[in-house]
Design goal:
Elements (H helix, E strand, L loop, with lengths): L1 H11 L4 H9 L2 H80 L2 H20 L10 H23 L2 E4 L11 E7 L9 E6 L1 E4 L2 E4 L1 E6 L3
Parallel strand pairs: 2-6
Antiparallel strand pairs: 1-4, 3-6, 4-5
Helix pairs in contact: 1-2, 4-5
């Protein structure tokens, strides 16, 4: 310690003679100053360590918040995906239900129409069975009956058409298994194979859907 004091006095003597004198007069002052300096450094170190600890604590809390945020975002994404799927399923159900309702409106009279087709067939056979040469003014009763049958047949076809029920009389058309039912196949001169040569029974379609296929004879290769 004496050597340190001597070195300090030697360094300060040229510039600070009074300080040198005071150090020479009271060596204890140097020790007190050194202790105070050390104490100040210790305080600074403690404050720095405390600040570092404070910095570490928010960093840990921030990490926890980040993890919690990621979990919440994942849950939100999952819930949003389920919500969108539920909306899509509900929309599909709504569209299917609407389609079923529309089809019920269109084809709800299907069974009734099938029953009426038998009536139309009978009227058609009745008009075809009347000999045309017998329809004369000399035979007014038969003529009136025939005209009444024809008018009834025309009116019932108008009612059918009004409700979307149309006749299928495909003579000369290409055979279509969705609209026609082949009763036989036979070669015929002058007819293209695969076409319909004869219609045994008229078919009907209801709003584009085949209600009753036409019974036909189809031309085949000789």
């Amino acid at each position: 310690m004496a050597a340190v004091a001597q070195c300090v006095r030697g360094a300060l003597r040229p510039r600070y003679p009074l300080l040198s004198f005071s150090l020479r007069a009271s060596p204890r002052l140097l020790c007190v100053a050194t202790q105070q300096k050390n104490t100040g450094q210790n305080l600074e170190e403690d404050q720095s360590q405390s600040q570092n600890e404070q910095k570490v604590e928010p960093s840990s809390a921030e990490k926890m918040l980040t993890e919690e945020k990621a979990k919440l975002e994942e849950q939100l994404k999952e819930v949003t995906d389920k919500y969108k799927r539920a909306l899509a399923d509900a929309e599909n159900v709504r569209q299917r239900s609407q389609k079923l309702v529309e089809e019920a409106k269109l084809y709800g009279i299907q069974s009734f129409c099938k029953d009426l087709l038998e009536v139309a067939d009978i009227l058609e056979k009745a008009t075809e069975s009347v000999p045309k040469e017998e329809i004369k003014d000399e035979n007014p009763h038969l003529k009136s009956l025939y005209e009444g049958l024809v008018m009834t047949e025309v009116q019932i076809q108008k009612v059918f058409k009004k409700h979307g029920l149309l006749r299928l009389n495909p003579v000369g058309a290409k055979f279509d298994p969705y609209e026609h039912e082949a009763l036989f196949h036979a070669p015929m001169e002058g007819k293209e194979p695969g076409t319909i040569a004869l219609v045994s029974k008229i078919g009907y379609k209801l709003h584009g859907r085949t209600l009753r296929p036409a019974l036909v004879g189809v031309v085949k290769d000789a």
